[in-house]
């Protein structure tokens, strides 16, 4: 810009020098020409303004609008710059939201692909309940084990938690089913399986399972003995005693042998019906109830003595029947036959650890002693 001002000054100076050397007439003529030229320019300017008035007004308005827009833009820029942290947080939240949608989308696709397997898993409680109803116990336990494996692997999943809750409820139903099975006469193999299942599914202790087993065994023995009651109508004590001893020999021996096989215990016992406490601890009618009032040591002691109590109960039952009915038999042959049968019955019970010799001697006296001596003499050396 300084160069432009310098150029103008030198130009003006040279023009003045030129005017000084020219005649006045030429200067006047040039002045008139310049005046006319200025008037022409003013007319052209006015004409231009008149013809482009609308355009010039629009240009002015646009210029004003542009200035206002630039001002607003500047304010917005300042606001945006001041809120950049907020915008950054919003953008991060949006990104997290989109990531979450992506994860859920992937899970939905996985659920769609695994729909058949998931549907099968959700049917576990239904299938287990069906197995319990049809008494397919092994299959029911397999479904229970599958549910527990799912719990161990996906324990935090709400669906799996609900599934395990249903299975645990069915496990209680399964345990009750096993307890009902113990009320029935069972083969040894089936009995071992039922007790093993009961140990797995129920919350009962080993002592309580033994208690329930022997309670049901006693009920089964009593049912068999009650079936002999009609024989009393014939007023034939010999017949009643023969059948009674036969039931005791078969059923009691079988039940005690089953107990040994199931609980792996020896039944080498000393039985004393006089000091027996079985009457003080009669088994309740509800076999599923726990043993109240027993601490751990008492429960362990009870577990060790429960079989002794059961055997004492059997011996006491036999002695009671003999004391009532044996004196009513007067024929020597019939008495000898019953003594021999009683000897064989005692021998059978001896195999499972029960010996009634002393108790029978107290009731039968020399007759029982003579029977033992005669049987000892008949045995080969």
TrEMBL record:
Pfam families according to UniProt: Dor1
What are the UniProt keywords, alphabetically?
Coiled coil, Golgi apparatus, Membrane, Protein transport, Transport
A GO CC annotation given for this chain: Golgi membrane
| Coiled coil ranges | 24-51
Q: Which InterPro entries match?
A: COG8 (IPR007255), Cullin_repeat-like_dom_sf (IPR016159)
Which locations, inside or outside the cell, does it occupy? Golgi apparatus membrane
- Keyword Protein transport in record: yes
Which membrane topology describes this protein?
A: Peripheral membrane protein
The UniProt entry lists the main location of this chain as Golgi
Q: Which SUPFAM superfamilies match?
A: Cullin repeat-like
Q: Give GO terms for biological process.
A: intra-Golgi vesicle-mediated transport; protein transport
The record's comment on protein family reads:
Belongs to the COG8 family.
Question: What's the protein here called?
Answer: Conserved oligomeric Golgi complex subunit 8
The organism named in the record is Schizosaccharomyces osmophilus
């Amino acid at each position: 810009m300084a160069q432009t001002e310098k150029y103008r000054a030198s130009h003006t100076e040279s023009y003045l020098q030129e005017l000084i050397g020219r005649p006045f007439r030429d200067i006047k003529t040039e002045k008139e020409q310049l005046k006319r030229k200025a008037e022409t320019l003013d007319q052209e300017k006015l004409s231009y303004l008149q013809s482009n008035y609308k355009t010039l007004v629009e240009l002015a308005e646009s210029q004003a609008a542009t200035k206002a827009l630039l001002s607003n833009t500047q304010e917005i820029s300042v606001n945006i710059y001041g809120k950049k942290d907020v915008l950054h947080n919003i953008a991060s939240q949006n990104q997290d939201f989109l990531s979450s949608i992506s994860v859920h989308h992937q899970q939905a696709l996985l659920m769609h692909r695994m729909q058949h397997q998931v549907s099968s898993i959700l049917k576990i409680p239904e299938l287990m309940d069906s197995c319990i109803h049809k008494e397919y116990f092994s299959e029911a336990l397999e479904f229970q084990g599958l549910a527990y494996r799912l719990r161990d692997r996906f324990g935090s999943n709400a669906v799996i938690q609900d599934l395990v809750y249903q299975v645990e409820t069915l496990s209680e139903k399964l345990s009750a089913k096993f307890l009902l099975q113990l009320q029935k006469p069972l083969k040894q193999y089936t009995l071992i399986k039922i007790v093993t299942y009961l140990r797995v599914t129920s919350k009962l202790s080993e002592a309580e399972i033994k208690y329930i087993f022997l309670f049901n065994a006693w009920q089964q023995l009593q049912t068999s003995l009650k079936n002999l009651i009609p024989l009393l109508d014939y007023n034939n004590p010999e017949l009643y005693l023969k059948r009674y001893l036969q039931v005791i020999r078969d059923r009691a021996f079988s039940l005690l042998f089953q107990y040994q096989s199931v609980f792996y215990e020896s039944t080498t016992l000393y039985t004393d019906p006089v000091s027996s406490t079985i009457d003080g601890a009669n088994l309740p009618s509800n076999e599923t109830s726990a043993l109240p009032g027993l601490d751990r040591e008492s429960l362990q002691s009870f577990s060790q003595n429960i079989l002794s109590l059961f055997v004492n109960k059997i011996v006491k039952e036999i002695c009671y029947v003999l004391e009532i009915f044996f004196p009513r038999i007067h024929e020597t042959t019939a008495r000898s036959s019953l003594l021999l049968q009683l000897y064989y019955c005692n021998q059978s019970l001896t195999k499972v650890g029960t010996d009634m010799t002393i108790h029978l001697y107290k009731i039968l006296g020399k007759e029982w002693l003579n029977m033992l001596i005669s049987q000892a003499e008949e045995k080969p050396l």
